[in-house]
Fold each of these.
Amino acid sequence: MSDSSNFQRAPGAPVLPHTPFRFVLHFFLQFKGWYGAMIVLEGLTAGFGITIPYALSRIIHSVTATATSQSLAHDWSTTLRTPLLMFVFLCFGELIFGRMAGAIHIRIAPRQRQNVTRHIYHYLQLHSHRYMSNNFAGALVHRISETSLGVSQIMLSIIAEFWPLAIVLSVAVGLLLHAYLWLGVLVGAWAVLFIGLSYWLATWCQPHALAAAGARSETTGKIVDAVSNADSVRLFARLGYERENLERYLGREMKAIRRSNDYAERIRWFQFSAAALLKIGTLVYALTLWQQQKIGVADFVMAVSLSLMIINEGRNIARRFLEFFEYVGNVANGVHAIIQPHELIDTPQARGLDVAGGAIEFRDVYFAHGERENLFEGLSVSIPAGQHVGLVGTSGSGKSTFVSLILRTIDPQRGSIHVDGIDLRNFTQEALHEQLSLIPQEPSLFHRSLRENIRYGRLEASDQEVEIAARKAHAHDFIAQMAQGYDALVGERGVKLSGGQRQRIAIARVILKGAPVLILDEATSSLDSITEQAIQETLQDVMRKKTVIVVAHRLSTIAHLDRILVFEHGRIVEQGSHAELLEKKGMYARLWLAQAGGFLPESADALEDAVA
């Protein structure tokens, strides 16, 4: 599949080809000047290197000619000077040009790897929440690493191995043809046939290499997933289970790798055997030609040296082809997994608009998850600016989807959602998310300092502003007790902190952000009762003059809000204040009565059982 206008990319995304060949070519062209210099230098290196046996043959020719001369000293100094100078010149030329090419490579290769990593990571950032949820984070990181390294390895293979080999074979066969026509034809024909057959066999090995690369990425993803959930593994006493689970994936990986390696090894058996037979045959043929006085000693040495060199290079090219297609497999694995059409993109008319009041309106919204039936069918609801609204309902009733549509991590199939009368699709996603704040039930922190995690809400905030936000979130006291204070690292995903501490850091981050629309997904559920009461008072202050949406799992946390929306099977079946809804004695009243330990029933059936 080639690039086309049908391939949807988010605005600002790097224009990366989604086929491996075009992908590699794209990054080659970004450093084409340096790669061009490497091609010239590697060509000169190969040319000088393959000409050394010719210079050696001229030296041997001069030595044998001088040995029959009467004036040995005089003839030695005159007849050997030119071939010796040629030999020295070729040796130094091979050395200098080779190291010049090497110097370029060691400077360009890491820059190219970083360049590929930078572009793929940028592209990956713009994928949707659904894409990220459907892929292992560890597998994606592994693919980025293998793809960036694979591009550099492909470049090196072509420029430093295949291109010099083409020159070596061309010059060598030309010299052999000059020495003796049929010797050159024999070796040249073998080289062309052998390399062509090796390439064809290596292409058959490519799918196996691609499968092996995919299996490695999947295993890496499984390991990262298990390590990220190490506490759950330990607390459920599933250490053995996870090791067994890893063994299953390692077994699948080993099977894929073994299949690839076995196929490659069979190819090597053919290639090494063919090379060995030709070495013996070439030597016997050259000896026969020398015995028949069709070639001299000098040409015999040159012919044998060049023939053996060509055969060795031809044999090694098989290994290089196999490695090359493994690199191609790694790149293809990453390109096919990551360079996919973006699902949620900014429209051409999207702008970096500002939210003033934060009024939210759903207009005839239809939404379904995947191929399922519609969850929302013509949903219309308006939330005035500055109103505090609670969302209530059993599991699967549509609360989380309602919030996800506002956050625009998903888009409706029909209808529209507006903020301050502006369609969400007219905001750039970055501008929209700058003006929405979310405090999830399970906040995720970066493995960075406490100060950096809080300042993530507003990067330009001063240390004093960070501390003020932490005090408002009742986080300052426990931060002050830590050895490094605000500079203490929180561990991956905040594992060094308790659930309540993580939540307070997340609240401080949102306080610092100060967005006009605030969404809380039971933000205080992991706090103790005393801290929860203090945080609730803080949130009341933070929520002033903001549009607030609270997803409730405990009705007591939303009883004070201006308005409550009661969801059932994707419909808003009731709405009003806490007192108004209790008076109606409808679903909300039943939920209020049915709360077990302060929490809502999980399903409509559980609700009916609770109130029966």
Note: The first strand starts at residue 360 and ends at 367.
Amino acid sequence: MASFQAQAIQSTEPVLSVENLTTSFLVEGEWKPVVRDVSFDVAPGETVAIVGESGSGKSVTSLSIMRLLQADSSRIEGRIMLGGRNLLSLPESAMRQVRGNEVAMIFQEPMTSLNPLFTIGDQISEALLCHSAMSKAKARAETIRLLEKVRIPAAASRFDEYPHRFSGGMRQRVMIAMALASKPRLLIADEPTTALDVTIQGQILDLIKVLQEEEGTSVLFITHDMGVVAEIADRTVVMYRGEQVETGATADIFHRGRHPYTRALLSAVPVLGSMGGRERPLRFPVVNAATGESDLPVEAADTVAAMARPVLEVKGLTKRFDIHSGLLGRVSGRVHAVENVSFDLRAGETLSLVGESGCGKSTTGRAVMRLIEPDGGSVLVDGKDVLALDKRGMREMRKTVQMIFQDPFASLNPRIRVGAAIAEPYLEHKMGTKRQAKEKVADLLTKVGLSPDMASRFPHEFSGGQRQRICIARALALDPKVIIADESVSALDVSIKAQVINLMLDLQQSLNLAFLFISHDMAVVERVSHRVAVMYLGEIVEIGPRAAVFGNPQHEYTRKLIAAVPVPDPDRRSTKRMVAYDELKSPIRPVDYELRAQHYREVSPHHFVAI
């Protein structure tokens, strides 16, 4: 009886106990704390989520636990207890045995975590051989078993393949297999789904749940996505500016969150289905992270000129990429990236192109701008055929159509001040003098919620959300009628994403802009769109008013995308979507392949689905 009670007490002891963790970095000769006095436990079989925006200290917390920070420029204080040992007092040789053996970590970007020079099988086998006395043959068999466990199709045949042959979702599953190789007691997952499409994200979340049930592994999940937190976490730690501001059961955090920052995070989460009964896009409510005060979400005014001619008309747009092989570089196949895509866009309207990576939505946006040359079809801007324009005509067209890209830092020259970057297109197109350009820059910075004196700063002095606002200001410099926003908010934290979307909706209303909004985030698309076009393998398979597509999805692929969206409701945490574990089919076709003509049926007014 006594031994049974001892076992029961032992089983309730936390796998990981973090006490008063403070992490500082050496900056200009002084220690600057970036994580201050953080404490939490992770129980056996439990999932604890650390949530917060970029810069809140959540990833530094996980790296501190693993002692992966550079020793000469960082200082970690407090206690990190694992199995009765303080990890901060262990020598480095002992920590190497802990990493990957007792505690494993999955990082955000799997391609940077995998060595491109070694096969997938060798990299997983290495983890087994390092932490056990296993033979190479047994390590190979165990690796294949792990690959099958994480739902890699034809695992035995893919053992000898290299990382570049795997999709993003498959690479993340390989990282999970590697992390689980030594049966760790604790799995730290640092933003493991942020860079993935919504369906692949659903697969990874379901996979972690299943593996946790089978192996009894504890999980420390780092994320800024409250929808993911609701789906996977038993308890949640909310971090803000390096401090732990709220901790509790996930259901309590969602339903009875007390801290203003917690409420601000939750208010910025787009909830799929929340647009029922609304015809027009809806701004996100803005919550002050310091006071908790909130404004009411405002439905955008109807600025769409229904009877006017569309400002952008795309008909039969096609783009294929040749694949060369052999010594002579002959064309051996083609990537059918965009096939016979047609749509129109009116002033003041947002049409969203949605689909997984590889479906052709970004290629469509670039082909419309002629950043890549289409192989066929027509693109009319204000009635003029873009594909027939010469170089001078293209310069004029780009006053009308501008583009915002996914990565704002890559879009800005790090050596040029942001004021000069915004003024550059204005001056290049000779739309005014330098003095007028300076006034224009000040006006645009004000329009996008920044102050005019920021024009003298460089891009690295701004946050990600501020840099995206600068890119929007630059796109507005030529007074365009159409803006193509290519995954323009997908890399942003949830609250920053809400602010940027609100800005885009406000600008659309005040300037009567038309947006071609390219995204894989169905919850955001529902919030911002007037109409939605769903792309699959280069083709539009369903298009129609937003309410019709979301309220009555007809195509199987549309229903799959909607079903994969995380629901920010902790009461559904035990529910598994069981999304199919198949990859997006390849758009590569033989040279002589002839695609059959796509036919559509009208389900309801202006709602068409491929048949």
Note: Residues 1-10 have pLDDT under 50 and may be disordered.
